[in-house]
Design goal:
Layout: H1 4-13, E1 19-22, E2 26-29, E3 41-46, E4 51-56, E5 67-68, H2 69-76, H3 81-96, H4 105-118, E6 127-128, H5 133-143, H6 148-158, E7 162-175, E8 180-195, E9 198-206, E10 212-216, E11 224-225, E12 234-236, H7 239-243, E13 250-252, E14 269-271, H8 276-290, E15 298-299, E16 305-306, E17 309-310, H9 316-325, H10 331-347, H11 350-359
Parallel strand pairs: 12-13, 12-14, 14-15
Antiparallel strand pairs: 1-2, 2-3, 3-4, 4-5, 6-7, 7-8, 8-9, 9-10, 11-13, 16-17
The chain binds zinc ion.
Zinc ion is lined by residues 31, 33-34, 36, 41, 56, 58, 61, 63.
Amino acid sequence: MLREVNRRYFLKAVQGAKIKKDTPYEIQCNCPLCGDKKYRLHLYHNKQKNIDLVHCFNAGCVLDSPMTFKRALPYLNPSLEEAYKKETLMEIISNSYIKEDNPLKSLLQKKKSAVADTGIDFLHFFRDCKKSKRCLEYLKKRLKWQSKDDFSRDFQILGNVYYNGKKEETRFFEHSSEKDKKHYVKDSIIIPIRDKGREVGFYSRALEDRRFSTFLLPDIPKFWKNCPVSEMQIVTESIFDSVSTGFENIGAMLSADTPPEISPPENCIVAFDNDKTGFEKLYKEIENTISGKGKYKRFFIWPYSFRGVVIEEKDFNELLQRLVEIEKMPRKEVLRFIKEMIEYNTEENAIKAFLKLKEKGVKI
Ligand SMILES: [Zn+2]
């Protein structure tokens, strides 16, 4: 049988053309492309391949060899293409966005139709990370937990965190208009991305190598936050960095910049990494702000040192690790130290600092 969405868009695309036949398996009409008047354009279902094909039997027509409806649509009516993609995307995602060979597949199938509306039901795919010793060990090491308070504070910020084990590989397929992305999640920690109370994606990070990936349902901006955007105090590049800043209301870009849908409040600080790419992004962002296009007003610029501590690390999480591990500072104090460093620095008005640098002819 023809797919409902294909039938609907085909009829839209040939609107005005005379139709001779319209059955659940085939539509036959005049071809608006080659001016055919003998009903030689067909949309039909190929049962063997389970696809819907378009074919105009008028030699010389652009559609004179069979092609999938998806490929034929831009010829028939390019203005419908985007709406069609969006509709089929949602259909594909809610039907197949997860895994072929997961032992939980039967469970997933029951749940799949609800996915697009309600978000991802993580416990169907993963385990609560608090039940995994290895996972807790990883977080403890990474975030330098020293007490139960540290543990509680970080989980309050991160929310539910999940885990999938060494033997379980879960594949997520993300379909987008440009490219289908595959995500293989194995032996990883999974931090959900929320939007309007729903869990709509996740950031995954492997425990033993540096593999990571970000999976999102369609139309969800690539951004992690633990609070409403209007309450965000700081935005960093990665989630673990924002947890290491000492701020409670945090966001993480998970990529090169903040998506257009996210508008941080005026007092929100943006802090890029302390490395070459981080500086480049920082200066670009400051330039944007100066020219009125930028979305941030407060910037963090890494100092060479703060309160006698030389800062060489490339991000806040590395700094937290060094100060706790090597300098033997209590974690609570380190978080206060980092927070003060960030606030002190931005009060100096980063834009002025930047302009001064430019005046001096410093190349950026
Ligand atoms: Zn034709």
